[in-house]
Design a protein that fits this description.
Number of helices: 12
Mean pLDDT: 94
Largest sheet: 7 strands, parallel
Number of domains: 2
Order of helices and strands: EHEHEEHEEEEEHEHEHEHEHEHEEHHH
CATH class of the largest domain: Alpha Beta
Radius of gyration: 20 Å
Strand content: 15-25%
Number of strands: 16
Structural class: alpha/beta
Strand order of the largest sheet: 3-2-1-4-5-7-9
């Protein structure tokens, strides 16, 4: 066909972070590797740092389209935050996109969703999502078995109780809000391991240098090649709620969530109810009693065993199967 077989729509800039783009790159890289005969692209709004991340990580088999490109596709796969800081859906976006695609898939990991009528398939890896507006002809795939995390994370079987504290922080317009957390974590009662902090590429080089100067006990990292290698040496992971939360869970590392925004805090609370994270609250209001669990060996060992049972196989494989099966019908 003219156009593309598959276009992954995702955005990345400071206000919404790197998670959607990171997932898009993981998925399209794996998909293009398994099915090199498909014509695949990603499209979205990308900041300069996001474009650098794309250049460093996206397969050469995948095309990067301009945000205003109107190429047609057999399947359009939408994974983004339509309004920064809000979980509302831009329904007009789907009405316009439907004129350029044969099948429209919405990948939207929210707690409560009303599926746009233009959507053919809805996917959400959160098993506890509430779905509204589903029509008879719409297909729905829900549950952790669709968690879009690559094999490399699931295949990480190493767990060392004396490993590092790895922190993975997304971007926020007020980056200085993380100072409150750093001031707490370096206290002697918490800082009993090596601490590594991976910063979003959306933070400036100058900001990273300022942190390194101010907090010399902490190793600050940015733009690394393999997050799973970093996690492999971790005893636990503290992350802003999002893609990195589930990467660490897939790698069987006890996760502690922390939030910039209220909705992240709410989502972490719901995941905590399932027993898969410890919600520390927001950067401005950290629960130090819960943070003390980072030095509780019994908790860390128990959580590692729990994650081994709950997250055995890569959900990205199931997602790829869904897309490939749909392409066979077009």
């Amino acid at each position: 066909m003219n156009g593309y077989d598959f276009i992954y729509y995702c955005d990345s800039f400071t206000e919404i972070g790197l998670g959607h783009l990171s997932r898009g790159i993981d998925f399209t890289n794996e998909f293009s590797s398994r099915f090199p005969f498909y014509k695949i692209a990603i499209r979205g709004i990308y900041s300069e740092s996001a474009m650098n991340f794309i250049s460093a990580n996206l397969s050469g088999k995948v095309t990067v389209l301009d945000k205003d490109d109107e190429s047609i596709s057999a399947i359009s796969f939408v994974d983004t935050m339509f309004y920064p800081g809000s979980l509302d859906i831009n329904y007009d976006f789907f009405r316009k996109l439907k004129t350029h695609t044969k099948k429209l898939i919405l990948f939207f990991d929210v707690l409560d969703v009303t599926i746009p009528p233009e959507v053919d398939i809805y996917i959400n890896y959160l098993p506890y999502t509430i779905i509204r507006g589903k029509t008879e002809n719409q297909k729905v795939f829900v549950g952790f078995k669709y968690l879009p995390v690559p094999d490399a994370f699931f295949n990480s079987n190493y767990f060392g109780i004396n490993g590092d504290i790895v922190c993975i922080f997304g971007a926020d317009k007020d980056g200085y809000v993380i100072f409150n957390f750093l001031n707490i974590i370096i206290q002697e009662k918490f800082c009993k391991r090596n601490i590594k902090v991976l910063l979003s590429p959306h933070y400036s080089k100058e900001f990273k240098e300022e942190l390194s100067s101010k907090y010399q006990k902490i190793a600050f990292l940015q733009n690394i090649n393999n997050v799973h290698d970093l996690l492999n040496n971790a005893a636990l992971v503290i992350s802003t709620y999002g893609n990195s939360t589930f990467q660490s869970i897939a790698a069987k590392k006890p996760n502690f969530s922390i939030a910039f925004q209220d909705f992240q805090n709410n989502y972490a609370t719901r995941l905590e109810e399932e027993g898969f994270t410890v919600n520390l609250g927001t950067f401005s209001n950290i629960d130090e009693n819960k943070l003390a669990l980072i030095n509780n060996s019994n908790y860390l060992l128990t959580q590692n065993e729990k994650l081994k049972v709950a997250f055995k196989t890569p959900g990205i494989n199931n997602l790829i199967n869904v897309i490939n099966n749909e392409l066979q019908t077009i």
